[in-house]
Amino acid sequence: MKIGKDLVAAAATPMVLGILAEGESYGYAILQRVGELSGGELEWSDGMLYPLLHRLERLGHVEATWGASPAGRPRKHYRLSPAGEAAFAEQRRQWSVVSHALQQVWTDRDGGRSTFALGGAPA
Fold first, then answer.
1. Distance, CA of 58 to CA of 36 (rounded, Å)
2. For residue range 21-66, what is the model confidence (pLDDT) as tens digits?
3. Max CA-CA distance within the chain?
4. What's the rounded Cα separation, in Å, for the pair 80 and 106?
5. Helices (H), the chain
6. DSSP bridge partners of 115
7. pLDDT in tens, 94-112
């Protein structure tokens, strides 16, 4: 299934903040985690992730430090700042409202049946 660009873009910030709420990470690992969390449905590119990380860094939501990698090449590690933790909490509240509203619409439309699981198959 192809997920539309608008939905991917809308979910990108809370997704990255949520991944960094799990602990410090770096770009490639974040991309891998997005794939894991979405059951392989979301495949982000470097060109999508790094501008977002840089924006979050400029906003003060993410702090970055350079560190060594097992391959010996330095890589940038990202972690949530205190402002990022607050932004993540606010994103969670907002997405909870949106998710609840969508669940109600879908449940009403489907006559009370459960919503769809990943991949579009009935749950």
1. 27
2. 999 999 999 999 999 999 999 989 999 999 999 999 999 999 999 9
3. 57
4. 34
5. 5-21, 27-37, 46-58, 82-109
6. none
7. 999 999 999 999 987 776 6
Q: What is the CA radius of gyration of the chain?
A: 17
How far is 102 from 83, CA to CA, in rounded Å? 29
pTM score: 0.84
- CA gap 8, 42 in Å, rounded: 8
| Residue 22 dihedral angles phi and psi, to the nearest 5° | -75, -20
Q: Name the amino acid, one letter, at 92.
A: R
Query: Tokens standing for 64?
Result: 């970055």
E strand or H helix that includes residue 66: strand 62-68
Q: What are the angstrom distances between the C-alpha of 24 and each of 27, 53, 79?
A: 10, 13, 5
Strand partners, 64: 78
**Please, what sign has the CA dihedral across residues 102, 95, 21, 64?**
positive
Task: Produce one character per residue of 24-50: b if its CB has 16 or more CB atoms within 10 Å, e if not.
Answer: ebebeebbebbeeebeeebebeeeebe
